[in-house]
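Input structure tokens:
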């Protein structure tokens, strides 16, 4: 049995423990950071985990997010202002790239990346008029939502463009004949990315069947269209029985186009110009139609 202290009835060990508890806390009323610095080495880590770890992790995460956002906004390319989609002209990629560079050089106040002549589009299929409005393929629909009318959209209506893209994408996934870049065309047209198109005559006709081509009047006034003279291509020039309306420009009449050695049978037209006509018109002027 431990010998008890006569006065308190506590052992010496217990008295020492009481004395430790009664001793003044040297760290009282001072900051946690100062306490952390003054603690013995072996006590620093547990104290840090208890008092600073969560705050440190939160700060590091916040800094990482800020840095990430800064890098993202600093390095992402600017939004395009002019996208010229060319069809089945990939063999002329180098010449088209040179044309893009020349146009960018003519506008030195703009970031060159806002102009894009995309020669990657390949269309091999024809507008499928057998698909019904619900994509059933039995021809029972009204045709307004079929793949034949939804390859892209009229630039005058972004809602119509969205519906066309949805129908086109659904048709593609549902096993229709569109196994080329039709779905990509539909999506980018609906997004308002493609405001200008260039294609050989036969493919240009196909694009009109897909409602991808807008009238010239969507971007040019009557006076400017009249000034383009023989370069203007009318719908009934391409297909007998079609409406007499200006839908394109004959690139064999373009001095800039011919100087690059690009094909004479190509036709130039407007796509979705709902985001503005400034740059499609500027590119039209740049082509110098005679």
């Amino acid at each position: 049995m431990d010998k008890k202290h006569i006065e308190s009835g506590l052992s010496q060990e217990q008295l020492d423990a009481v004395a430790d508890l009664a001793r003044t806390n040297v760290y009282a009323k001072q900051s946690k950071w100062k306490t952390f610095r003054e603690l013995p080495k072996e006590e620093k880590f547990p104290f840090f985990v208890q008092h600073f770890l969560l705050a440190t992790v939160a700060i590091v995460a916040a800094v990482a997010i800020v840095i990430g956002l800064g890098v993202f906004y600093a390095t992402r390319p600017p939004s395009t202002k002019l996208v010229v989609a060319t069809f089945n002209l990939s063999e002329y990629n180098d010449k088209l790239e040179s044309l893009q560079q020349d146009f960018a050089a003519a506008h030195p106040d703009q970031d060159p990346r806002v102009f894009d002549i995309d020669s990657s589009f390949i269309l091999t299929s024809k507008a499928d008029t057998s698909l019904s409005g619900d994509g059933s393929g039995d021809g029972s629909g009204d045709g307004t939502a079929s793949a034949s009318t939804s390859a892209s959209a009229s630039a005058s209506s972004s809602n119509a463009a969205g519906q066309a893209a949805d129908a086109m994408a659904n048709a593609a996934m549902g096993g229709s004949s569109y196994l080329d870049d039709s779905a990509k065309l539909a999506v980018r047209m609906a997004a308002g990315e493609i405001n200008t198109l260039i294609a050989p005559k036969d493919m240009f006709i196909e694009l009109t069947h897909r409602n991808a081509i807008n009238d010239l009047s969507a971007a040019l006034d009557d006076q400017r269209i009249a000034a383009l003279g023989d370069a203007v291509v009318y719908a009934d020039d391409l297909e007998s029985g079609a409406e007499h309306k200006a839908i394109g420009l004959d690139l064999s009449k373009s001095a800039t186009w011919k100087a690059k050695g690009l094909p004479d049978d190509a036709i130039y037209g407007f796509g979705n110009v709902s985001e503005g006509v400034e740059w499609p018109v500027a590119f039209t002027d740049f082509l110098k139609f005679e």
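The chain has a mean pLDDT of 79. The first helix runs from residue 12 to 22.
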